[in-house]
C-alpha cells in the first residue's frame, strides 16, 4: 500500500464530518448527556500551539464519550471583547469590530484544520449583540436583586491617558503606557456582590471532588476566610486630633495581645486623615507611600514604613499600658477595619517594622521543648504552635485556649454599652468591580438622569448596542468621547440624561458562556432553563491554570446569581475541572544575543551532545533553556506549519504522547517526526491485516487456539486500559498501551510461515477483530487516519460501514482480561532468593513444589530440612528451614 497522505485525507474527512453534521448535538436527544468544554479562545488573530493542546485534550474525551453512547455537547465560541482590539484600532486604524471578526474567521479556519469534533452550530462571539443583549438583561436582573450595586472605590487613575488602570498596569507608581504618576481617585463603580456568596463559594469547594486540589486551594486562599476578634482599643484623648475615643482593630491572634508593641492604621483610615490635617509632615509621608499604588504584591514586598502619629492607644487589659499609633504602609483600608495591633515576635511584617523603628519585641508563644527564659526573637518571627509566656493570666495556655480566654473576657467587658471585643469572620474576597472605562466591551445598560438618578434601560430598548463610528484619536474611553451616543432622554421623566459609558469587565462575558451554549438560539432569554438545567453542569472543563482563580470563581458566582434571578437551577457550573500544562520549547540564541526561531535552526545530535547551527549561514547557535513559548524569545512553533508539514493527527498525537496532560510538554521536532513515523506504521499495519483478516469466517468461531487467544487477550487488554485511561484523562498512558498493542499485533502479522492460505479460521477472525479494535483505540486521538483505516477495513470486508467517528466503542470481553499466570517471590527464612511463575489456578502443593525445585532455594537451605512453607497468595512463598 501507498503511504498515508494526511494532506489529502484530513480535509476530506473534515468535509465529510461537516456535511453529515455528526458533531451537532440536539437538545431533544434522549441519550444521557455529556458536556465537554475547553476554555474558549480570545480572537487574537492566530491559534497558538497551547490551543492545539487544550482542544485536543477535550476532543479526545468528546469523541470517546460519543462512542460510549453519550449525547456529547462540545461547543466553541469566542471571548471577543477586550483591550487588544482597541490597541489594534489605535496602532493600525482598523475598527475593533472588523479586527475581531476577521480574527475569528481566520482562527476558525485553523481550528477546523485540527479536526476537532465541535458543534459549530452553537458558535457565538461575546461581542455579538445577540449575546451581550442577554448579559445586559442579567445585569438589570442582578441590579433588581441587589446583586449589582454602585460603590465608591479608590482606583488608579492615569492623568495623561485619562483612564483607570488595573493594578497590574501600575509600575513603580506610574502608568504602564503614559509613564505618568498615577493618582488614587475615588470613583463610582459598578460592582457585583460576590461577597454575599463568600461562605457558600468556600463551602461548596469541598463538593468539587473532580477539581484539582491545587485549584481548590487557590480559590480557598483567594476567598480568604479568617476567624478573629474585633477589639475596640480606647484612645488617650489628649493625644488625638479631635477627641476620638477609640480605635477598632481586627486580629486573628488575640492570644498575642501581651506581645503588642504598637498600633498601625492605614493611610486611608479616618484617624490618619484627621491626624494628617494637623501635621504636614505626616501628610507628606502619606502622599509618599501612596505612590506605590494599590497592588497587593507591591505592598507585600515594599519595605515596611511607618509614621508615629503621636496618638496613644490603651491596652485592653492594662489601663496604664500605652501603645503608639503609627500610620503604616502595610495596613490596607480594604481589609478588616484598616487598623491593627502589632505583635512583632509572632508576625514577620510587624517584626520588620519594629526592627526598623527600634520598638523591641516580647515573645508570648514559646515552642514546645524550648526554655522560655532563653527563647528570643531577632529577625524571624515565630508563628508556630506553643504555650503562652509573658502573658499574665494566659501563661501556660495553648494558643487556642488563649484566643478563647481573651475573646471571652473582652466580650464580657463593656465600654459604653458595647462589648470591647466581638468575634468576627472576615473574608479577603472583595466585591467584583466590573466597570471599565473602555469602548470594546459590553455596555452597562443604565442611564444617569439628573432627576431620577440611575435608571435601568427598559427591556424593550435592549441591547444597548456599541456605536461603530468611534474614533481613537483621544486617549481614554472612546464611548465617552462619542459626540452623540451617550445623550439620551430619561425613560422615566423625559429629562435630558446620559448613558453609562463604562463597559463591563470581560470576565463577565466568560462567566456564563457555558450556559448560553446550551441554547444559543433563544432570542428572548439568556437560557432556556429546562434545557440549561438538563445540559449543565459542564462535565469536564479544560483550561489553563492561569484561570484557576478569577474566571472559575466568577463563573461559580455568576451561576448562583443566574439561579437567584431565575435563569438556571444549579449552583456549580463545572463538575469536573482539568488544568493542562503548557507547551514549552528550547530557546536559541545567536552569539550577539538575538533570539532565533526554531524553524531557522538545525539541531544535530553528535558525540558531544546536541549542537545547533543557523540553517541560512551555518553559524553556531547557542541552545538555551526550555521555556514557555513566547514571541519575545521566538521559541514558538506555528500550528499551521506543523499541520501543513505533518498533518493534524501527528500534531495531536505528539501533544498527547509525551507527558501527562497536566504537566508541561516539551516541543521537539525529533519527537514530532517519531509521531509521524508511527502514523505510517499504523497505516501499514492496518493494510497488512486486511490480507489475513479477509479470510475470517463471518461467524465467531466456537473456540480459539493459543495464537488467536493470545492476540485477543492483547486486544481486549489494550481496550480495557485505554478505556479507563481516557476516562481519567491519562492520555499519555493510553498512547503507551496503543503502542504496545501495535507491537504485539505486528509480531502476529509478521510471523514467518503464515501465508493466508495456512491461516486457521480462528486466528483470521482474531486478526480481523484486532484490526477493528486498534483503529477504534486511536480514533479519538487521530481521527482522520482512523477514518481512512476504517474505510479500508470496510472495503475489504473486515469492518462496518459508516464513519468510525460514529461507531460505538468496542465491547470489552472481561473474561479475556484475567491473567493466567502469576509470579511469586520466593524467600528462604525471610530472605528473597528467587521467583516462580505458576498458573493462576495453581494450588498450594504445586506452588510449594515449584519453589523447592529452584537451585537458589536448595543452595540457601544448604541441606537443611524444610520445616514449613508459608504462602501469601499471589505474592510470596516463604520457605522456613
Ligand atoms: C495581631 C497579630 C499578631 C496578627 C500576630 C497576626 C499575627 P488574615 O489571616 O489574613 O485574616 N491585619 C488585619 N487587618 C489588616 C489590614 N487591614 N492590613 C494589614 N494587615 C491586617 O490576617 C489577619 C491578621 O492580619 C490580623 O491579625 C492582623 O494582624 C493583620 F502575631 O493581629 B494580626
Ligand atoms: Zn429622569
TrEMBL record:
Gene Ontology molecular function terms on file: aminoacyl-tRNA deacylase activity; ATP binding; leucine-tRNA ligase activity
Record's GO cellular component, any one? cytosol
**What stretches pass through the bilayer?**
none
Biological process, per Gene Ontology: leucyl-tRNA aminoacylation
Name the residues that bind ATP.
Answer: 631
Q: What is its EC number?
A: 6.1.1.4
What EC class does the entry list? ligase
Name of this protein: Leucine--tRNA ligase
Amino acid at each position: 500500500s501507498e503511504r498515508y497522505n494526511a494532506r489529502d485525507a484530513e480535509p476530506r474527512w473534515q468535509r465529510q464530518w461537516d456535511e453529515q453534521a455528526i458533531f451537532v448535538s440536539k437538545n431533544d436527544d434522549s441519550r444521557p448527556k455529556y458536556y465537554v468544554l475547553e476554555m474558549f479562545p480570545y480572537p487574537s488573530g492566530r491559534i497558538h500551539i497551547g490551543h492545539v493542546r487544550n482542544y485536543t485534550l477535550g476532543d479526545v474525551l468528546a469523541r470517546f464519550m460519543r462512542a460510549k453512547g453519550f449525547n456529547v455537547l462540545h461547543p466553541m465560541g469566542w471571548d471577543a471583547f477586550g483591550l487588544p482590539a482597541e490597541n489594534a484600532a489605535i496602532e493600525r486604524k482598523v475598527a475593533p469590530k472588523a479586527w475581531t471578526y476577521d480574527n475569528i474567521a481566520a482562527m476558525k479556519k485553523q481550528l477546523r484544520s485540527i479536526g476537532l469534533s465541535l458543534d459549530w452550530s452553537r458558535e457565538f462571539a461575546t461581542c455579538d449583540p445577540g449575546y451581550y443583549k442577554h448579559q445586559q438583561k442579567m445585569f438589570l436582573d442582578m441590579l433588581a436583586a441587589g446583586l449589582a450595586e454602585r460603590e465608591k472605590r479608590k482606583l488608579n487613575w492615569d492623568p495623561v491617558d485619562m483612564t483607570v488602570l488595573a493594578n497590574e498596569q501600575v509600575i513603580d507608581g506610574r502608568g504602564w503606557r503614559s509613564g505618568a504618576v498615577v493618582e488614587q481617585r475615588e470613583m463610582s463603580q459598578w460592582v457585583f456582590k460576590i461577597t454575599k456568596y463568600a461562605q457558600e463559594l468556600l463551602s461548596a469547594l469541598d463538593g468539587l471532588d473532580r477539581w484539582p486540589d491545587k485549584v481548590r486551594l487557590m480559590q480557598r486562599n483567594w476567598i480568604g476566610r479568617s476567624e478573629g476578634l474585633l477589639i475596640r482599643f480606647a484612645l488617650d484623648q489628649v493625644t488625638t486630633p479631635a477627641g476620638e475615643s477609640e480605635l477598632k482593630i481586627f486580629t486573628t491572634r488575640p492570644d498575642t495581645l501581651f506581645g503588642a508593641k504598637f498600633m498601625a492604621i492605614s493611610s486611608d483610615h479616618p484617624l490618619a486623615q484627621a491626624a494628617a490635617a494637623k501635621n504636614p509632615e505626616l501628610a507628606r509621608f502619606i502622599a509618599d507611600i501612596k505612590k506605590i499604588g494599590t497592588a497587593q504584591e507591591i505592598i507585600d514586598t515594599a519595605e515596611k514604613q511607618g509614621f508615629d502619629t503621636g496618638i496613644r492607644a490603651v491596652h485592653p487589659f492594662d489601663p496604664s499600658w500605652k501603645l503608639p499609633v503609627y500610620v503604616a504602609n502595610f495596613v490596607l483600608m480594604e481589609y478588616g477595619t484598616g487598623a491593627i495591633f502589632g505583635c512583632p515576635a509572632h508576625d514577620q511584617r510587624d517584626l520588620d517594622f519594629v526592627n526598623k523603628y527600634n520598638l523591641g519585641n516580647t515573645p508570648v508563644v514559646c515552642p514546645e521543648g524550648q526554655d522560655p527564659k532563653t527563647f528570643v526573637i531577632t529577625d524571624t518571627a515565630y508563628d508556630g504552635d506553643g504555650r503562652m509566656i509573658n502573658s499574665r493570666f494566659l501563661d501556660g495556655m495553648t494558643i487556642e485556649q488563649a484566643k478563647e480566654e481573651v475573646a471571652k473576657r473582652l466580650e464580657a467587658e463593656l465600654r459604653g454599652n458595647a462589648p470591647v471585643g466581638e468575634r468576627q469572620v472576615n473574608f479577603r474576597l472583595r466585591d467584583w468591580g466590573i466597570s471599565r472605562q473602555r469602548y470594546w466591551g459590553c455596555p452597562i445598560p443604565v442611564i444617569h438622569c439628573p432627576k431620577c438618578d440611575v435608571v435601568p434601560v427598559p427591556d424593550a430598548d435592549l441591547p444597548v448596542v456599541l456605536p461603530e463610528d468611534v474614533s481613537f484619536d483621544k486617549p481614554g474611553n472612546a464611548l465617552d468621547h462619542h459626540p452623540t451616543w451617550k445623550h439620551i432622554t430619561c425613560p422615566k421623566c423625559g429629562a435630558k440624561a446620559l448613558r453609562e459609558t463604562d463597559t463591563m469587565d470581560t470576565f463577565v462575558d466568560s462567566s456564563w458562556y457555558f450556559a448560553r451554549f446550551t441554547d444559543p438560539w433563544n432570542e428572548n432569554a439568556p437560557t432556556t432553563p429546562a434545557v440549561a438545567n438538563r445540559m449543565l453542569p459542564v462535565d469536564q472543563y479544560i483550561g489553563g491554570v492561569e484561570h484557576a482563580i478569577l474566571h472559575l470563581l466568577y463563573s461559580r458566582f455568576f451561576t448562583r446569581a443566574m439561579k437567584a434571578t431565575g435563569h438556571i437551577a444549579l449552583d456549580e457550573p463545572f463538575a469536573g475541572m482539568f488544568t493542562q500544562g503548557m507547551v514549552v520549547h528550547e530557546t536559541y540564541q545567536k552569539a550577539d544575543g538575538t533570539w532565533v526561531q526554531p524553524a531557522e535552526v538545525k539541531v544535530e545530535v553528535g558525540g558531544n551532545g546536541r549542537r545547533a547551527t543557523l540553517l541560512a549561514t551555518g553559524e553556531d547557535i547557542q541552545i538555551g533553556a526550555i521555556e514557555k513559548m513566547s514571541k519575545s524569545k521566538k521559541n514558538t512553533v506555528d500550528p499551521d506549519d506543523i499541520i501543513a508539514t505533518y498533518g493534524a493527527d501527528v500534531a495531536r498525537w505528539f501533544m498527547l504522547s509525551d507527558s501527562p496532560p497536566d504537566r508541561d510538554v516539551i516541543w521537539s521536532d525529533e519527537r514530532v517526526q517519531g509521531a509521524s513515523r508511527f502514523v505510517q506504521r499504523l497505516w501499514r499495519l492496518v493494510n497488512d491485516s486486511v490480507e489475513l483478516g479477509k479470510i475470517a469466517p463471518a461467524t465467531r468461531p466456537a473456540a480459539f487456539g493459543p495464537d488467536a487467544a493470545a492476540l485477543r487477550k492483547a486486544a481486549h487488554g489494550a481496550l480495557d486500559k485505554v478505556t479507563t485511561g481516557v476516562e481519567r484523562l491519562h492520555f499519555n498512558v493510553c498512547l503507551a498501551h496503543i503502542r504496545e498493542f501495535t507491537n504485539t499485533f505486528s509480531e502476529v502479522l509478521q510471523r514467518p510461515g503464515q501465508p493466508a492460505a495456512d491461516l486457521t479460521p480462528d486466528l483470521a477472525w482474531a486478526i480481523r477483530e484486532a484490526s477493528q479494535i486498534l483503529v477504534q483505540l486511536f480514533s479519538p486521538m487521530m481521527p482522520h487516519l482512523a477514518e481512512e483505516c476504517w474505510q479500508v477495513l470496510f472495503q475489504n470486508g473486515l469492518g462496518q460501514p459508516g464513519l468510525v467517528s460514529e461507531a460505538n466503542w468496542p465491547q470489552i470481553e472481561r473474561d479475556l482480561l484475567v491473567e493466567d499466570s502469576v509470579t511469586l517471590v520466593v524467600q528462604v527464612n525471610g530472605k528473597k532468593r528467587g521467583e516462580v511463575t505458576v498458573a493462576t489456578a495453581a494450588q498450594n502443593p504445586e506452588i510449594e513444589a515449584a519453589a523447592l525445585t529452584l537451585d537458589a532455594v536448595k543452595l540457601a537451605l544448604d541441606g537443611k530440612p524444610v520445616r514449613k512453607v508459608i504462602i501469601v497468595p499471589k505474592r510470596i512463598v516463604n520457605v522456613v528451614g
